[in-house]
Design brief:
The longest helix has 21 residues, at 3-23. The chain has a three-stranded antiparallel β-sheet with strand order 2-1-3. The relative contact order is 0.19. Helix 1 (3-23) crosses helix 6. The chain has helices spanning 3-23, 51-68, 74-80, 84-94, 101-114, 116-129, 135-144; strands at 32-36, 42-45, 131-133. Helices cover 54% and strands 7% of the residues.
């Protein structure tokens, strides 16, 4: 994997994180702690309060790298873009949401394609500097795509109109 591919991969995670939190009512002061190209690349972000956003954050790295490499699809990203851990995390969250992983991937690809100037801007700075700290990540993203936000509607499954609100996970009863 080239440094440019790693930079686009990590920039994808960061752009999805910024998009998720720019819609959130409560958000941390710093959305992305840092991006770097060491040890295969790393994006240290805050956890999203919305499950669909969290799935997109996990998928966005490999999908951004697949766009950069000219094959924008989940299958290619899984096979060639070093996203085994990201995919495992996305599947764990998706198991508690409605919609298929493919639907979430399509939404994430739409977000990345709409925000591609932000991905390339971050990747360019990351390649030059090797690391981007804290609030500078959001500054770069918003400068490239000022109105960045998730462009998709909630996934609706079945005829009952249930949206992607998280299912309540039954708690084990017993002594605490």
């Amino acid at each position: 994997m080239t440094n440019a591919a790693v930079a686009h991969h990590e920039a994808g995670h960061a752009v999805a994180t910024v998009a998720a939190f720019r819609m959130a009512r409560r958000r941390p002061a710093v959305l992305v702690r840092r991006l770097e190209i060491t040890n295969g690349g790393h994006c240290v972000s805050m956890s999203s309060p919305r499950m669909r956003s969290q799935i997109a954050i996990h998928l966005a790295g490999g999908l951004a790298e697949s766009i950069h490499r000219g094959v924008p699809c989940l299958e290619f990203a899984v096979a060639h873009c070093g996203m085994a851990v990201d995919l495992m995390r996305a599947k764990a969250v998706a198991a508690r949401c409605t919609g298929t992983l493919a639907q979430h991937a399509d939404d994430t690809l739409a977000l990345l394609e709409a925000s591609w100037p932000a991905v390339t801007a971050l990747a360019t700075v990351l390649l030059e500097a090797g690391r981007i700290e804290g609030g500078r990540v959001e500054e770069i993203v918003v400068a490239a795509v000022p109105g960045i936000r998730y462009p998709f509607e909630p996934i609706v499954v079945g005829t009952n109109g249930r949206s992607d609100a998280p299912r309540q996970i039954p708690r084990k009863k017993g002594p605490r």
